[in-house]
Amino acid sequence: MALELVALLCTGLFAGAAVYVALVEHPARLECGTVLAIAEFGPSYRRAAVMQATLAAIGCAAALGAWVQGRGLTVLVAGLLLGAAVPFTLIVILPINKRLLNPGLDPRSAEAAALLARWGRLHVVRTAASSAAFLLLGLHMVGAF
Question: What is the mean pLDDT of residues 30-54?
Answer without folding.
Answer: 96
